[in-house]
Every structure is written in C-alpha cells, then in structure tokens.
Amino acid sequence: MLIDTHCHLDAGEFDQDRDAAYERAVAAGVATQIIPAVTRANFADVGVCCRRYAGCLPAWGLHPIYLHVHHRRHLDDLCHQLDHWRPVAVGEIGLDNFAPGLDLATQEYFYFEQLKLAKDFELPVLLHCRRANDLILKHLRRVKPAGGIAHAFNGSLQQAHALIDLGFKLGFGGAFTWGRATRLRELARVLPLDAIVLETDSPDIPPEWVGKGRNEPAQLPRIAAALANLRGIEAEEVAQATSANARAALHL
Fold it and tell me: Which of 116, 119, 117, 115 is nearest to 129 (CA)?
C-alpha cells in the first residue's frame, strides 16, 4: 500500500467529487493521504476531510504563499490546534522566493516560529521551498526539529544530502515524470531510495500523462511505477521503500 505524503484533498477543486476521488485512491492502493493545512481558516476544512476519510491524516501549518492572510495571532491558534488535535506534522510551512509579492523577512518570521512549535511539540515538519533551499537549511540547523519531509524537492544534490543529514526525506511526485525535467529526473534516479517519499500535491503538480488536468491521489501508483522505471527496479520495491520511509519520517 502506498502513502501520499502531500495531498490537498480538501481543496475546492475536489468539491464536486471528493468522495469519488478518495475512493479511487483507495481502490488504487493508496492507503494513507497526508492533508496539510495552509492557513488558519483552512484548519476547519482539513479537519472535516480527515474526520470523513479514515485514510486521511492532518498536518497543521501556515503556508508562505498565503502570507497576505496570516496574522501573528494565528501562531497562537496553531499552537492551540497542535495541542487540541495532534497531527502527523507541522505543515505546510517554509519559504517561497519565487512567487511575486512575498516579503521574505515576514516569511522567515512565520517559518522560524513554526519550526520552534514543531520542536516544542516534538513533531516533524512538511517543508515548502521554492528557490530558498539554503535559507530553509539555515533555519533547520538553528532549530533542529524532529526531521520531516522536503515537499516537492527541487534543489541540488548537495542540498538534498544536507537535508538527508538533518533527518529529512525528500518528496517526489508528478514533476519528475516530465521528460524535460532532466535535472529532477536525475535526482530521482541517483538519490538513495531510503531518502525518498512519494506525493501528488493534488490537485497541483500533475504528472506528464495528466498534462494540464487536475491531479489526484489515485495517480500515485503510476508515479511510483515511473520512479521504478527510472531507477531500473520493480514498482513493488518502490512502493515498499517509500511507504516505509514515510512512516519513519512522520512517525506513523
């Protein structure tokens, strides 16, 4: 059975067929889906999703992309939520140096404070990082949380090993299945299998065969098969290894 370590099944894109999307995933062999929150207001939707579906587990966090809706008091709300409903991780948190209009200093404040909460609660973290891997690593070394997953990893080989050395697994999903993603495909091929977990980031980051369509967790087995093909091993080996890695990273 596979574990989708990053899936936004609560997103509005699934409002018309959420039950069916979940059932398709289960039928495809995706036993567990990790549903990360992105804003304070989003805690409720993630909670509804995780109560409704037995295979969905929550992560609570404040995503850097939604900086415009975050308030410092939301960190207190996050602390309460972590205490009220212990998640598998604090997330989705991190830094984004790609999307326009996001103040990096404010992002760092929220990221650092959430890392400290993760440390206090002895929880792993789900990291969002775009074009900020070195800064992500700087704060991880300062706080030293209980490991976690670098979601949608797209850094260098050196940065990958730095994260691994800090106890992190690296999330791979639809992005590496595109033929033009040569650097990412090489990372997926050469990194230690015991450092890799699988994800869809549904409804985003669709694999090549989906094109511009909506991604969903039922695509995970085919993503696993694509990784197996890239590495020259059996899909079952990828499924077993990545699921074990996810359980280790998230203390499942």
Answer: 115
Q: Are 33 and 55 in contact (CB under 8 A)?
A: yes
> What pTM value is reported for the model?
0.98
Cis, peptide link before residue 203, omega less than 30° from 0: yes
Q: Token pair 């207001």 is at which residue?
A: 41
List per-residue pLDDT tens for the chain, 252 residues long: 999 999 999 999 999 999 999 999 999 999 999 999 999 999 999 999 999 999 999 999 999 999 999 999 999 999 999 999 999 999 999 999 999 999 999 999 999 999 999 999 999 999 999 999 999 999 999 999 999 999 999 999 999 999 999 999 999 999 999 999 999 999 999 999 999 999 999 999 999 999 999 999 999 999 999 999 999 999 999 999 999 999 999 999
CA–CA dist 217, 197 (Å, integer): 14
- All domains in the chain, ordered by first residue: 2-250 (3.20.20.140)
- Closest C-alpha among 136, 70, 124 to residue 97: 136
CA dihedral over 244, 245, 251, 252, signed as positive or negative: negative
- Give the CA diameter of the chain: 49
